[in-house]
Amino acid sequence: MKRLLIYTTLLTGLVLLLIPCVPAQEPPPGTDPACEFDQHLIKEMDNMLNLWYVKREAANAKSVLAKLKDVDSSMVHIDSLVALRVKEMGTIIPVTYNEYVKPYIELYVIKRKRSSAALLGLAQYYYPAMQEIFDKYGVPEELIYITIIESGLNPLAVSRAGATGIWQFMYTTGKMYGLDVNTFIDRRRNAFEATDAAARHLRDLHNMFNDWGLAISAYNCGPGNVRKAIARSGNKSDFWSVRPFLPRETQNYFPAFIGAFYMMKYHNLYGIKPAKIAIPSDVDTIMVKHEVHFEQIAHVLNISIDEIKTLNPQYKLDIIPAYAESYPLRLRTKDIIHFINQKDNIYAYNHDTYFLPVKNQENSFTGGGNATAQIAKASSAKAGSGSAAKSSSGVTIYIVKKGDTLSSIAQKYRMDVKQLASYNSIGNLHKLSIGQRLKIPKK
Protein backbone atom coordinates (compact mmCIF):
# COMPACT_ATOMS: atom_id res chain seq x y z
CA MET A 1 0.00 0.00 0.00
CA LYS A 2 2.86 2.36 0.89
CA ARG A 3 4.62 1.52 -2.40
CA LEU A 4 1.39 2.26 -4.32
CA LEU A 5 1.04 5.63 -2.57
CA ILE A 6 4.62 6.60 -3.49
CA TYR A 7 4.05 5.56 -7.12
CA THR A 8 0.81 7.59 -7.32
CA THR A 9 2.52 10.65 -5.84
CA LEU A 10 5.38 10.42 -8.35
CA LEU A 11 2.95 10.01 -11.25
CA THR A 12 0.92 13.02 -10.12
CA GLY A 13 4.09 15.09 -9.84
CA LEU A 14 5.16 14.10 -13.33
CA VAL A 15 1.78 15.06 -14.80
CA LEU A 16 1.89 18.44 -13.04
CA LEU A 17 5.33 19.12 -14.51
CA LEU A 18 3.89 18.59 -17.99
CA ILE A 19 0.95 20.96 -17.55
CA PRO A 20 1.59 24.32 -19.26
CA CYS A 21 1.92 27.40 -17.12
CA VAL A 22 -1.55 28.94 -17.42
CA PRO A 23 -2.18 31.25 -14.44
CA ALA A 24 -5.74 32.41 -13.84
CA GLN A 25 -4.83 36.05 -14.33
CA GLU A 26 -2.33 37.87 -16.51
CA PRO A 27 1.11 37.48 -14.91
CA PRO A 28 2.84 40.62 -13.62
CA PRO A 29 5.88 42.03 -15.46
CA GLY A 30 9.07 40.11 -14.83
CA THR A 31 7.47 36.68 -14.62
CA ASP A 32 8.51 33.72 -16.75
CA PRO A 33 8.01 34.61 -20.45
CA ALA A 34 6.93 31.01 -21.10
CA CYS A 35 4.06 31.56 -18.66
CA GLU A 36 3.17 34.78 -20.47
CA PHE A 37 3.01 32.88 -23.77
CA ASP A 38 0.64 30.31 -22.28
CA GLN A 39 -1.44 33.12 -20.83
CA HIS A 40 -1.60 34.66 -24.31
CA LEU A 41 -3.15 31.45 -25.64
CA ILE A 42 -5.77 31.44 -22.89
CA LYS A 43 -6.52 35.14 -23.37
CA GLU A 44 -7.06 34.80 -27.12
CA MET A 45 -9.35 31.80 -26.61
CA ASP A 46 -11.38 33.74 -24.05
CA ASN A 47 -11.59 36.79 -26.30
CA MET A 48 -12.76 34.58 -29.15
CA LEU A 49 -15.54 33.16 -26.97
CA ASN A 50 -16.70 36.74 -26.33
CA LEU A 51 -17.18 37.59 -30.00
CA TRP A 52 -20.86 38.41 -30.56
CA TYR A 53 -21.43 35.66 -33.10
CA VAL A 54 -19.79 33.06 -30.82
CA LYS A 55 -21.75 34.23 -27.75
CA ARG A 56 -24.99 34.02 -29.73
CA GLU A 57 -24.29 30.37 -30.51
CA ALA A 58 -23.27 29.62 -26.92
CA ALA A 59 -26.60 31.04 -25.70
CA ASN A 60 -28.47 28.36 -27.64
CA ALA A 61 -29.18 25.55 -25.17
CA LYS A 62 -29.02 22.98 -27.96
CA SER A 63 -25.66 24.11 -29.30
CA VAL A 64 -22.38 22.24 -29.05
CA LEU A 65 -20.94 25.06 -26.94
CA ALA A 66 -23.75 24.79 -24.38
CA LYS A 67 -23.25 21.04 -23.99
CA LEU A 68 -19.46 20.82 -23.86
CA LYS A 69 -17.68 21.11 -20.54
CA ASP A 70 -14.05 22.05 -20.09
CA VAL A 71 -11.94 19.75 -17.92
CA ASP A 72 -9.78 21.63 -15.44
CA SER A 73 -7.49 18.77 -14.49
CA SER A 74 -4.95 17.18 -16.80
CA MET A 75 -5.76 13.79 -18.31
CA VAL A 76 -2.92 11.32 -18.66
CA HIS A 77 -2.70 10.26 -22.30
CA ILE A 78 -1.49 6.94 -23.53
CA ASP A 79 1.64 8.56 -24.86
CA SER A 80 2.49 5.87 -27.37
CA LEU A 81 -0.96 6.19 -29.00
CA VAL A 82 -0.81 10.00 -29.16
CA ALA A 83 2.73 9.82 -30.55
CA LEU A 84 1.51 7.49 -33.29
CA ARG A 85 -1.33 9.86 -34.16
CA VAL A 86 1.08 12.80 -34.39
CA LYS A 87 3.35 10.76 -36.64
CA GLU A 88 0.40 10.00 -38.94
CA MET A 89 -0.82 13.60 -39.27
CA GLY A 90 0.52 13.67 -42.82
CA THR A 91 2.63 16.81 -43.26
CA ILE A 92 6.09 17.87 -44.40
CA ILE A 93 6.29 20.01 -41.26
CA PRO A 94 8.56 18.16 -38.76
CA VAL A 95 5.93 17.51 -36.06
CA THR A 96 6.69 15.21 -33.17
CA TYR A 97 5.31 14.29 -29.74
CA ASN A 98 7.32 14.95 -26.60
CA GLU A 99 7.08 16.55 -23.17
CA TYR A 100 6.93 20.04 -24.71
CA VAL A 101 4.09 19.23 -27.09
CA LYS A 102 1.96 17.17 -24.70
CA PRO A 103 0.67 20.07 -22.55
CA TYR A 104 -0.60 21.94 -25.60
CA ILE A 105 -2.43 18.93 -26.97
CA GLU A 106 -4.09 18.58 -23.57
CA LEU A 107 -4.91 22.28 -23.55
CA TYR A 108 -6.88 22.08 -26.80
CA VAL A 109 -8.54 18.66 -26.56
CA ILE A 110 -9.07 18.34 -22.78
CA LYS A 111 -8.93 21.62 -20.89
CA ARG A 112 -10.50 23.97 -23.46
CA LYS A 113 -13.00 21.84 -25.36
CA ARG A 114 -15.53 24.67 -25.69
CA SER A 115 -12.91 26.99 -27.17
CA SER A 116 -11.82 24.27 -29.58
CA ALA A 117 -15.41 23.66 -30.69
CA ALA A 118 -15.80 27.39 -31.38
CA LEU A 119 -12.47 27.46 -33.25
CA LEU A 120 -13.62 24.54 -35.39
CA GLY A 121 -16.82 26.42 -36.18
CA LEU A 122 -14.93 29.56 -37.17
CA ALA A 123 -12.51 27.46 -39.22
CA GLN A 124 -15.39 26.37 -41.45
CA TYR A 125 -15.78 30.01 -42.48
CA TYR A 126 -12.13 31.09 -42.71
CA TYR A 127 -10.07 28.02 -43.61
CA PRO A 128 -11.35 26.94 -47.06
CA ALA A 129 -10.29 30.26 -48.61
CA MET A 130 -7.07 30.32 -46.56
CA GLN A 131 -6.12 26.85 -47.81
CA GLU A 132 -6.52 27.99 -51.41
CA ILE A 133 -4.26 30.98 -50.79
CA PHE A 134 -1.53 28.86 -49.18
CA ASP A 135 -1.78 26.33 -51.99
CA LYS A 136 -1.30 29.16 -54.51
CA TYR A 137 2.08 29.99 -52.96
CA GLY A 138 3.16 26.37 -52.47
CA VAL A 139 3.12 26.71 -48.69
CA PRO A 140 1.87 23.82 -46.48
CA GLU A 141 -1.79 24.58 -45.85
CA GLU A 142 -1.53 23.26 -42.27
CA LEU A 143 0.30 26.48 -41.41
CA ILE A 144 -3.05 28.25 -41.33
CA TYR A 145 -3.40 26.76 -37.83
CA ILE A 146 -0.93 29.43 -36.68
CA THR A 147 -4.00 31.70 -36.57
CA ILE A 148 -5.31 29.63 -33.65
CA ILE A 149 -2.34 30.47 -31.44
CA GLU A 150 -1.94 34.01 -32.77
CA SER A 151 -5.47 35.36 -32.47
CA GLY A 152 -8.00 32.59 -31.82
CA LEU A 153 -9.33 33.33 -35.33
CA ASN A 154 -10.35 36.83 -34.27
CA PRO A 155 -9.67 39.37 -37.08
CA LEU A 156 -10.06 42.26 -34.61
CA ALA A 157 -7.43 40.97 -32.16
CA VAL A 158 -4.81 43.53 -31.10
CA SER A 159 -1.81 42.64 -28.94
CA ARG A 160 -0.19 44.88 -26.34
CA ALA A 161 2.61 45.49 -28.85
CA GLY A 162 0.14 46.60 -31.52
CA ALA A 163 0.12 43.42 -33.62
CA THR A 164 -3.25 43.34 -35.33
CA GLY A 165 -5.62 40.98 -37.08
CA ILE A 166 -6.12 37.27 -37.45
CA TRP A 167 -2.40 36.82 -38.30
CA GLN A 168 -1.20 39.45 -35.78
CA PHE A 169 0.96 41.45 -38.15
CA MET A 170 3.01 44.29 -36.72
CA TYR A 171 2.65 47.59 -38.61
CA THR A 172 6.09 47.45 -40.29
CA THR A 173 5.89 43.79 -41.35
CA GLY A 174 2.36 44.32 -42.62
CA LYS A 175 3.49 47.25 -44.76
CA MET A 176 6.27 45.11 -46.23
CA TYR A 177 3.64 42.69 -47.52
CA GLY A 178 1.10 45.25 -48.72
CA LEU A 179 -1.15 45.47 -45.66
CA ASP A 180 -1.60 49.24 -45.61
CA VAL A 181 -3.07 51.14 -42.69
CA ASN A 182 -4.68 54.60 -42.85
CA THR A 183 -7.47 56.59 -41.22
CA PHE A 184 -10.19 54.42 -42.71
CA ILE A 185 -8.67 51.02 -43.40
CA ASP A 186 -6.44 48.50 -41.64
CA ARG A 187 -5.80 45.72 -44.15
CA ARG A 188 -4.27 43.57 -41.40
CA ARG A 189 -7.87 43.09 -40.19
CA ASN A 190 -8.95 41.64 -43.54
CA ALA A 191 -8.52 37.92 -42.86
CA PHE A 192 -7.98 36.97 -46.48
CA GLU A 193 -5.63 39.80 -47.48
CA ALA A 194 -3.64 39.08 -44.31
CA THR A 195 -3.57 35.37 -45.19
CA ASP A 196 -2.06 36.21 -48.58
CA ALA A 197 0.62 38.24 -46.80
CA ALA A 198 1.19 35.51 -44.20
CA ALA A 199 1.69 32.84 -46.88
CA ARG A 200 4.34 34.96 -48.59
CA HIS A 201 5.98 35.84 -45.27
CA LEU A 202 6.16 32.20 -44.13
CA ARG A 203 7.51 31.18 -47.54
CA ASP A 204 10.25 33.80 -47.20
CA LEU A 205 11.08 32.63 -43.66
CA HIS A 206 11.34 29.01 -44.80
CA ASN A 207 13.67 30.08 -47.61
CA MET A 208 15.88 31.67 -44.93
CA PHE A 209 16.05 28.69 -42.56
CA ASN A 210 15.01 25.65 -44.62
CA ASP A 211 13.15 24.26 -41.61
CA TRP A 212 9.45 24.79 -40.95
CA GLY A 213 9.86 24.66 -37.17
CA LEU A 214 12.38 27.51 -37.32
CA ALA A 215 10.28 29.41 -39.88
CA ILE A 216 7.25 29.18 -37.58
CA SER A 217 9.40 30.36 -34.66
CA ALA A 218 10.69 33.27 -36.73
CA TYR A 219 7.08 34.25 -37.42
CA ASN A 220 6.75 34.75 -33.67
CA CYS A 221 10.05 36.34 -32.64
CA GLY A 222 11.53 37.58 -35.93
CA PRO A 223 14.30 36.11 -38.13
CA GLY A 224 17.02 38.03 -36.29
CA ASN A 225 16.34 36.23 -33.01
CA VAL A 226 16.28 32.86 -34.78
CA ARG A 227 19.65 33.58 -36.43
CA LYS A 228 21.11 34.41 -33.01
CA ALA A 229 19.70 31.16 -31.58
CA ILE A 230 21.18 29.16 -34.47
CA ALA A 231 24.59 30.71 -33.85
CA ARG A 232 24.40 29.96 -30.10
CA SER A 233 23.43 26.35 -30.85
CA GLY A 234 26.60 25.79 -32.82
CA ASN A 235 24.86 26.39 -36.16
CA LYS A 236 22.33 23.60 -35.77
CA SER A 237 19.67 23.64 -38.47
CA ASP A 238 16.52 22.08 -36.94
CA PHE A 239 14.03 23.47 -34.44
CA TRP A 240 14.52 20.97 -31.63
CA SER A 241 18.30 21.50 -31.58
CA VAL A 242 17.91 25.27 -31.68
CA ARG A 243 14.92 25.47 -29.28
CA PRO A 244 16.90 25.91 -26.01
CA PHE A 245 18.59 29.01 -27.47
CA LEU A 246 15.42 30.74 -28.70
CA PRO A 247 13.75 33.49 -26.63
CA ARG A 248 11.82 31.91 -23.76
CA GLU A 249 8.48 33.17 -25.06
CA THR A 250 9.16 31.50 -28.43
CA GLN A 251 10.41 28.10 -27.23
CA ASN A 252 6.85 26.76 -26.89
CA TYR A 253 5.40 28.48 -29.96
CA PHE A 254 6.07 25.57 -32.34
CA PRO A 255 4.92 22.97 -29.74
CA ALA A 256 1.70 24.97 -29.35
CA PHE A 257 1.26 24.91 -33.12
CA ILE A 258 1.57 21.12 -33.07
CA GLY A 259 -1.07 21.02 -30.32
CA ALA A 260 -3.47 23.11 -32.42
CA PHE A 261 -2.73 20.97 -35.49
CA TYR A 262 -3.47 17.80 -33.47
CA MET A 263 -6.80 19.23 -32.30
CA MET A 264 -7.82 20.10 -35.85
CA LYS A 265 -6.93 16.58 -36.98
CA TYR A 266 -8.29 14.43 -34.14
CA HIS A 267 -10.97 16.50 -32.38
CA ASN A 268 -13.64 13.85 -33.08
CA LEU A 269 -11.74 11.35 -30.93
CA TYR A 270 -12.29 13.65 -27.95
CA GLY A 271 -15.98 14.30 -28.56
CA ILE A 272 -15.39 17.83 -29.90
CA LYS A 273 -17.61 18.89 -32.79
CA PRO A 274 -17.59 22.21 -34.66
CA ALA A 275 -19.99 24.79 -33.26
CA LYS A 276 -22.41 26.28 -35.76
CA ILE A 277 -21.08 29.82 -35.67
CA ALA A 278 -23.39 32.22 -37.49
CA ILE A 279 -20.92 33.80 -39.89
CA PRO A 280 -22.52 33.35 -43.31
CA SER A 281 -20.51 31.29 -45.77
CA ASP A 282 -22.69 32.14 -48.78
CA VAL A 283 -20.92 35.45 -49.34
CA ASP A 284 -19.83 37.41 -52.36
CA THR A 285 -17.86 40.60 -53.02
CA ILE A 286 -18.82 43.74 -54.90
CA MET A 287 -16.58 46.72 -55.68
CA VAL A 288 -18.14 49.90 -54.28
CA LYS A 289 -17.54 53.13 -56.21
CA HIS A 290 -19.19 55.61 -53.84
CA GLU A 291 -18.51 56.49 -50.22
CA VAL A 292 -20.93 54.69 -47.94
CA HIS A 293 -21.42 54.09 -44.21
CA PHE A 294 -22.30 50.63 -42.91
CA GLU A 295 -25.42 52.05 -41.25
CA GLN A 296 -26.72 53.26 -44.62
CA ILE A 297 -26.39 49.71 -45.95
CA ALA A 298 -27.91 48.17 -42.83
CA HIS A 299 -30.96 50.49 -42.79
CA VAL A 300 -31.86 50.23 -46.46
CA LEU A 301 -31.23 46.50 -46.82
CA ASN A 302 -32.58 45.72 -43.33
CA ILE A 303 -29.60 43.61 -42.31
CA SER A 304 -27.52 43.48 -39.14
CA ILE A 305 -24.74 46.04 -38.93
CA ASP A 306 -22.81 43.54 -36.79
CA GLU A 307 -22.88 41.13 -39.71
CA ILE A 308 -21.56 43.82 -42.08
CA LYS A 309 -18.75 44.60 -39.64
CA THR A 310 -17.91 40.91 -39.26
CA LEU A 311 -17.68 40.39 -43.01
CA ASN A 312 -15.72 43.64 -43.52
CA PRO A 313 -13.48 44.10 -40.46
CA GLN A 314 -10.84 46.13 -42.32
CA TYR A 315 -12.96 49.30 -42.29
CA LYS A 316 -12.04 51.01 -39.02
CA LEU A 317 -14.77 53.69 -38.96
CA ASP A 318 -17.56 51.66 -40.58
CA ILE A 319 -17.02 53.78 -43.71
CA ILE A 320 -16.07 52.50 -47.15
CA PRO A 321 -14.01 55.47 -48.42
CA ALA A 322 -14.62 54.98 -52.14
CA TYR A 323 -13.88 58.57 -53.14
CA ALA A 324 -11.28 58.18 -55.87
CA GLU A 325 -11.12 54.39 -56.24
CA SER A 326 -13.28 51.33 -55.72
CA TYR A 327 -13.24 49.27 -52.51
CA PRO A 328 -14.56 45.77 -51.81
CA LEU A 329 -17.69 45.05 -49.81
CA ARG A 330 -18.51 41.50 -48.67
CA LEU A 331 -22.14 40.57 -48.02
CA ARG A 332 -24.35 37.53 -48.27
CA THR A 333 -24.93 36.69 -51.94
CA LYS A 334 -28.63 37.60 -51.70
CA ASP A 335 -27.73 40.93 -50.07
CA ILE A 336 -25.22 41.71 -52.83
CA ILE A 337 -28.09 41.45 -55.33
CA HIS A 338 -30.23 43.76 -53.20
CA PHE A 339 -27.31 46.18 -52.83
CA ILE A 340 -26.93 46.42 -56.62
CA ASN A 341 -30.65 47.09 -57.03
CA GLN A 342 -30.81 49.59 -54.16
CA LYS A 343 -27.41 51.29 -54.38
CA ASP A 344 -28.76 54.76 -55.23
CA ASN A 345 -31.14 54.62 -52.27
CA ILE A 346 -28.32 53.40 -50.02
CA TYR A 347 -25.96 56.22 -51.02
CA ALA A 348 -28.71 58.82 -50.57
CA TYR A 349 -29.99 57.54 -47.20
CA ASN A 350 -29.15 60.19 -44.56
CA HIS A 351 -26.10 61.10 -46.65
CA ASP A 352 -25.61 64.47 -44.95
CA THR A 353 -25.69 62.81 -41.55
CA TYR A 354 -22.74 60.58 -42.34
CA PHE A 355 -20.93 62.82 -44.85
CA LEU A 356 -21.70 66.38 -43.81
CA PRO A 357 -21.02 69.12 -46.40
CA VAL A 358 -18.48 71.57 -44.98
CA LYS A 359 -16.33 74.47 -46.17
CA ASN A 360 -12.56 74.45 -46.17
CA GLN A 361 -10.45 77.60 -46.11
CA GLU A 362 -10.43 78.04 -49.88
CA ASN A 363 -13.47 76.37 -51.42
CA SER A 364 -17.10 75.59 -50.70
CA PHE A 365 -18.27 72.01 -51.07
CA THR A 366 -21.72 70.54 -51.28
CA GLY A 367 -20.76 66.92 -50.79
CA GLY A 368 -19.64 64.07 -53.02
CA GLY A 369 -16.36 63.24 -54.70
CA ASN A 370 -13.18 64.79 -53.32
CA ALA A 371 -15.21 67.08 -51.10
CA THR A 372 -16.65 64.12 -49.24
CA ALA A 373 -13.18 62.70 -48.82
CA GLN A 374 -12.20 65.84 -46.93
CA ILE A 375 -15.46 65.71 -44.98
CA ALA A 376 -14.93 62.15 -43.86
CA LYS A 377 -11.31 62.82 -42.96
CA ALA A 378 -12.45 65.75 -40.87
CA SER A 379 -15.13 63.68 -39.19
CA SER A 380 -12.73 60.86 -38.38
CA ALA A 381 -10.32 63.36 -36.82
CA LYS A 382 -13.16 64.75 -34.73
CA ALA A 383 -14.37 61.28 -33.73
CA GLY A 384 -11.68 60.96 -31.09
CA SER A 385 -12.85 64.05 -29.25
CA GLY A 386 -16.62 63.87 -29.74
CA SER A 387 -16.88 67.22 -31.45
CA ALA A 388 -19.91 69.02 -32.83
CA ALA A 389 -20.50 71.23 -35.87
CA LYS A 390 -23.48 73.07 -37.32
CA SER A 391 -24.94 71.96 -40.62
CA SER A 392 -26.50 74.23 -43.18
CA SER A 393 -29.95 73.17 -41.94
CA GLY A 394 -29.30 74.64 -38.51
CA VAL A 395 -29.02 71.36 -36.61
CA THR A 396 -25.92 70.51 -34.64
CA ILE A 397 -24.00 67.43 -35.76
CA TYR A 398 -22.35 65.49 -32.93
CA ILE A 399 -19.61 62.99 -33.84
CA VAL A 400 -19.57 60.01 -31.50
CA LYS A 401 -16.34 59.29 -29.64
CA LYS A 402 -15.17 56.27 -27.67
CA GLY A 403 -17.18 55.85 -24.46
CA ASP A 404 -20.18 57.84 -25.64
CA THR A 405 -23.68 56.54 -24.99
CA LEU A 406 -26.97 57.88 -26.23
CA SER A 407 -27.81 58.76 -22.64
CA SER A 408 -24.61 60.78 -22.07
CA ILE A 409 -25.07 62.69 -25.34
CA ALA A 410 -28.73 63.39 -24.57
CA GLN A 411 -27.75 64.67 -21.13
CA LYS A 412 -25.09 66.92 -22.66
CA TYR A 413 -27.65 68.58 -24.93
CA ARG A 414 -30.47 68.46 -22.35
CA MET A 415 -32.61 66.14 -24.42
CA ASP A 416 -34.70 63.09 -23.71
CA VAL A 417 -32.97 59.89 -24.79
CA LYS A 418 -36.03 58.66 -26.70
CA GLN A 419 -36.31 62.01 -28.48
CA LEU A 420 -32.65 61.87 -29.55
CA ALA A 421 -33.00 58.27 -30.71
CA SER A 422 -36.15 59.02 -32.68
CA TYR A 423 -34.65 62.13 -34.29
CA ASN A 424 -31.73 60.03 -35.58
CA SER A 425 -33.76 56.91 -36.50
CA ILE A 426 -31.87 54.80 -33.97
CA GLY A 427 -33.46 51.51 -32.96
CA ASN A 428 -34.31 50.25 -29.51
CA LEU A 429 -30.78 48.96 -28.87
CA HIS A 430 -29.44 52.54 -28.88
CA LYS A 431 -26.14 51.22 -30.23
CA LEU A 432 -23.60 53.84 -31.37
CA SER A 433 -20.44 53.57 -33.47
CA ILE A 434 -17.30 55.68 -33.09
CA GLY A 435 -17.38 58.34 -35.80
CA GLN A 436 -21.17 58.14 -36.16
CA ARG A 437 -22.89 61.49 -36.71
CA LEU A 438 -25.92 62.39 -34.62
CA LYS A 439 -28.23 65.29 -35.46
CA ILE A 440 -29.02 67.50 -32.49
CA PRO A 441 -32.07 69.71 -33.13
CA LYS A 442 -31.49 73.43 -32.63
CA LYS A 443 -33.45 74.86 -29.71
Give an account of the 3D structure.
The protein contains 22 helices and 7 strands. The chain is mainly α and 443 residues long. It has a domain at 2-24 and 31-270: Lysozyme (Orthogonal Bundle). Strands 5-6-7 form a 3-stranded antiparallel beta sheet. Strands 1-4 form a two-stranded antiparallel sheet. Helix 6 (102-111) crosses helix 15 and helix 10 packs across helix 11 (212-221). Residues 1-31, 358-387 and 389-393 have low confidence and may be disordered.
Low-confidence stretches: 1-31, 358-387, 389-393
Helix count from the secondary structure assignment: 22
- Known CATH architecture of the domain at 2-24 and 31-270: Orthogonal Bundle
Average pLDDT figure: 82
**Structural shape:** elongated
Instruction: Determine the fraction of residues in helical runs and give it as a percent range.
Output: 40-55%
Number of strands: 7
CATH class of the domain at 2-24 and 31-270: Mainly Alpha
Tell me the series of helices and strands, N- to C-terminal: HHHHHHHHHHHHHHHEEHHEEHHHEEHHE
CATH topology of the domain at 2-24 and 31-270: Lysozyme
Major sheet: size, sense and barrel closure?
A: 3 strands, antiparallel
Q: What is the terminal-to-terminal distance?
A: 87 Å
- What's the arrangement of strands in the largest beta sheet? 5-6-7
